[in-house]
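#struct-pred

JT: dropping the chains for the assembly here, can someone run the whole complex?
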Amino acid sequence: MNEKIIEVCNLNFENVLTNISLEIFKGDFIAILGPNGGGKTTFVKLLLNILKQNAGEIKFYEDLKNKIGYIPQSATTVDTVFPATVDEIIRTAFSNKRFFFGKLSLEEKNYLDFLMQNFQIIDLKSKLFVELSGGQKQRVLIVRALANKPKLLILDEPDIGLDTVSQTKFIEKLNIINKENKTTIIFVTHHLGIIEKYITKKFYINGVLN
Amino acid sequence: MEIFQYEFMINAFIAGILIAILTSTLSLFVVVKRYAMLSDALAHISLLGVAIGFLFQVSTIVTAVIVSIIASVMIEYLRSYKKLYSDSMLSIFLSSALAVSVIIVSLSNSFNSSLFDYLFGSIVAVTSEDIFMIILFFILTIIFIIVYYQKLLLICFNEELAISSGVNVKLINLLFTALIGTLVAISIKIIGALLIGAIMIIPVVSAICLKKGFKTTWILSTIFSVLGVITGLVLSFYVSIPSGATIVIILLLIFIFTLIISKKTR
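RK: done, full complex below.
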């Protein structure tokens, strides 16, 4: 049996979420579903400590510090003049580990190159992030999220702006990451679509969780 | 060269170049955070510190730094904890600080002309004490940037990503805002409270126009800033025009130039 990594007990947040409880196990591929404004993003932000709950508890059974990969909904709509290259954005994944002059280890460098090749962004390395298309931005963010070899990957509506072909490829890659690395994935979406055949659990949030 | 035969000009060059490097370094983060009004607000708040310094006849640079740091910490607290609109809050701080300054000045009108130096900047006003403060602050800022560069970049890119990565966003934002407050307070004597916003923002925006990566933008904005200060000081010396205003005009010309270059390369 898989080990439990997170337990959410009677979580309440303002008038958005009421008595949310669920358990997340290692290797789960979870879909969090619900209508727009139903509280899906709020739930994820509470998990990530971006927001503080009014009541309830979130228990972590494993130390996930620096081991959570996150793709927020807002990240692809970054300021149109933000002057950072794809490489600079990806390297912020290591911001907790190193100072400005710190270099990546050879292993980290090789792994980043492998990820960038796998997600077909290696040629975009020196391009400005803001100049990329929606799909390219999404791939950069997933590489950034995977750079630290996360144990938990949280994606908040990551398929918005992707065409059907890109969506399918993206979900298939997520499935490989989930199966091969035993990475737990929480996928927030308002429609199941093609992820349905890969997920192990689905939760529906509309103020309360079913 | 004649210009280097005067001690006050050597002081002005040392102070000006160090401030140019500091402003372009810290302002890059200010601009990309869309917080450009902060420098202007803190400049006016620093004036309050200067007025208090004159009133109690103590070092104006020290009182300006203290008042500016207190205000910057309050601004950051209200922005991040109380979630108040940043621009509206900055306007409130700016107007209130200016109002109190004017009252202090009118109550003891003996230092009106000295305060004028702080509004528009004066190269002859730079003392050894100022240079010492600037060098001290320069070292402090370099250490801060070496330690927090990656984290600051991530915060500017996306605060939520930074929090989820375990970055102490509130602490770094607080330290950063306090640094900006100190920078503005120690710079107004040479650049002037009314012009400090320009030297902080124009070189960065000029560099951003050239659409390069973050580090290259930083290097370019530092070059523009230093170029503006050196050219401005030389011109102000030989043509006898105010230093702060001359520096701003040079920076404006650089901005127009980069704007034209960026349109041609598009």
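JT: nice. Residues 73 and 133 of chain A are 15 Å apart (CA to CA). The first helix of chain A runs from residue 40 to 47.
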